[in-house]
Structure formats: C-alpha cells, structure tokens
Amino acid sequence: MRQGSHSPIGVFDSGVGGLTVLKALMSRLPHESTVYLGDTARVPYGTKSGEVVTRYSLKNAEFLLERGIKLLVVACNTASAVALPALEAALPVPVVGVILPGARAALARTQGGGVGIIGTPGTIRSGAYQRALESADPRVRAKARACPLFVPLAEEGWTTGDVPLLVARDYLAEFTRDGVDTLVLGCTHYPLLKGVIAEVVGPQVALVDSAEATADAVAALLSERGGLAPASRGTPEHAYYVTDVPERFMEVGARFLGRPITAAEQVDLSF
Question: Which candidate in 12, 13, 254, 266 could, as Cys together with 37 as Cys, close a disulfide (CB 3.0–4.6 Å)?
Fold first, then answer.
C-alpha cells in the first residue's frame, strides 16, 4: 500500500446513493476511517457523457488523494461503468468499483444462470453489468431493466407501502416470469427498497446488494495487501464533503447511512 494502514478509505458518488456503500464498509470494516465525497452540485452522472463523467471522477479522486486515502471506492455505478480504467491508470492507490463485485456475487449465487440487473438508465445502457457477467461465464443469461423511479422514491423516503410496491410490480414483473433466480441491485439507492423488491420477486429470487459485495471486495483487497487498520487504533473518523449546500445531503443521507450525519463540508471542485 502507498499509504499506511491507518490512512482512510476514500469513497465518492455523485450524491447520496454511495452512502449505502459507505454503510456496508462501516459494518464490514468497523476500524477503518473514511472520507466521503458527494458531488451533489453535478448530480446525476447518468445523464452525462462518458468523457464528462470520467473528468468529474478524476477530479473527485484528486480531492480524496489530497486527504491521504489508501484506497478509493467508486460508489457510483455510472462512474464505475465508464471511468474505472482511467482512475486505475491515474491513481497511485487501489481502486474498487461497484460493478465487478456485484457481478461476481451474482455468479456465486445463481443456480440456473438467469441473472437480472436493475439500475439507472445510464448504468443499464452502458451494458457494464451484462459484460461483466457474460465475460466471466458465457452461460449466464443476463436480463437488465432500468428502474428510474426507484431513485426519487428512495430519496424521498417512500420505501414501504402501496406506492413503491405498485412501481416495483411494474418494473419487476418480467423478472418473475423469465427464469431469473438472482437479481442484482445495480444502483446504490436500491438497497433502501430491498424489502419491496423482495416482496415482488419472491423468495425464489436471491437479491445481490452491490454495496455489500463491494465492502467484501475492499476487505479482501486490504487484507491481501496488509492494509487493514488495526483493531487497536481507537475510534475511526468519518469525514463528509459535498459540492453543493450540505443541508439536504445531511437530511437524506442519514436515511441511506442509517445514522446521523452531524457535519458535512462544502467544497469547490470546479475546473
């Protein structure tokens, strides 16, 4: 590792969704300090070109490197789909995206090879999950569907009840009849709707949370490279930065993180 084991893990996303990845990291690696950057001034990334997303991602990574991170987690499916090669080439620390861990977890879970992927239109359009699955196992039958309304439902706290259930039934009906036995939640917002999604697809379909799979991948990589923070290090520190006013990030983000966010600093990452 270029940095010491006491150095923090850096995490970035275009907004609050990546906090589900951070939550999984905190649970899986409770002794690690973290630095989270939400590029809230330029959200969403899914509607922007690959070139623009790559430029934003490199700027985000530069900011986090200045804070001494030992590893970067790209907690954004769109950035993972289009910017990961550029980040890996440019950075002196390991880089982990959310797509490959999610795909690998799905391959480990599927029994019959029918894997569904749900995500934002940008992620589904990129074909990144489908390529990751089919290149690892050509026998996999990958079926993908964009579920754009899941994002505002999660951000507004509409994660239970008739409204999200109606939306989920419309989006997920095809997965219940096409031989899918494993479903990848390919957006960092979607874990908040896991209960509704599970109710619609039924117990015969295993849900793969890419946030949890990513946390497992980070733990394995740090362990392999001798970079895990020691249990004796004391209380870890968690810092939050955003590129727009922090109040809504703190309010909505607390639901995604499962704990209060008491402070977030606004920073300027303009070019």
Answer: 12
Question: What are the residues facing 11 on neighbouring strands?
Answer: 36, 73
Place of tokens 């890996």: 88
The answer to whether residues 197 and 172 touch, using CB atoms and an 8 Å cutoff, is yes
- DSSP state at residue 53: H
User: What confidence tens digit (pLDDT) does each residue in 214-269 have?
Assistant: 999 999 999 999 999 998 778 999 999 999 999 999 999 999 999 999 999 999 99
**Can you spell out the DSSP letters for 32-43?**
--EEEEE-TTS-
Distance CA 81, CA 78 (A): 5
Q: Which domains does the chain have, with CATH numbers?
A: 9-97+212-266 (3.40.50.1860), 99-210 (3.40.50.1860)
Contacts of 59 (CB under 8 A, 6+ apart): 269, 271
